[in-house]
């Protein structure tokens, strides 16, 4: 009792359906692979772009910090030079505290100081 509508195992129709299914699955796999590769390329490009932007921002921040540090160093150097100039001028005019030692002691001790 065999059914006329059912093909015997190993028939050409059954092999054709299996081959069609395999072809369809292979096509879907290929399409999925291509989509995954395209998405991966897109993500890589985005990552490289973001890395480039981050590098640029970091370089700008570094450059700004270097400029700020240089400005601070220049200001400190100018301050030190000004103090040195003041001390040199004071030494030349004799207005340094060590140069006026006797005058200061006389003013503080007054009459208590022996001659």
Description:
It is a single chain. The protein is mainly alpha-helical and 115 residues long. It has one domain (12-112). The mean pLDDT is 84. The longest helix has 82 residues, at 12-93. The chain contains two helices and no strands.
Would you kindly provide a brief summary of this structure?
This protein is mainly α.
The main sheet comes to:
none
Low-confidence stretches: none
Q: Percent of residues in beta strands?
A: under 5%
Radius of gyration: 46 Å
Give the proportion of residues in helices: over 70%
Head-to-tail CA distance between termini: 149 Å
The geometry reads as rod-shaped
Number of strands: 0
Multimeric organization: single chain
Number of helical runs?
A: 2
Overall residue-averaged pLDDT value:
84
Structural class label: mainly alpha
Provide the succession of SSEs. HH
How many domains? The number is 1
Please give a handful of descriptors for the protein shown.
mainly alpha, 2 helices, 79% helix, single chain, 115 residues
List the helices and strands and how they pair.
Blueprint: H1 12-93, H2 101-109
């Amino acid at each position: 009792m065999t059914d006329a509508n059912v093909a015997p195992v190993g028939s050409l129709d059954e092999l054709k359906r299996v081959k069609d299914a395999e072809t369809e699955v292979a096509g879907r796999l290929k399409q999925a692979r291509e989509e995954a590769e395209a998405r991966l390329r897109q993500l890589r490009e985005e990552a490289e772009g973001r890395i480039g932007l981050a590098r640029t921002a970091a370089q700008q921040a570094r450059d700004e910090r270097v400029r700020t540090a240089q400005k601070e160093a220049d200001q400190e150097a100018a301050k030190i030079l000004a103090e040195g100039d003041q001390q040199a001028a004071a030494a030349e005019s004799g207005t340094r505290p060590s140069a006026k030692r006797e005058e200061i002691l006389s003013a503080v001790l007054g009459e208590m100081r022996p001659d």
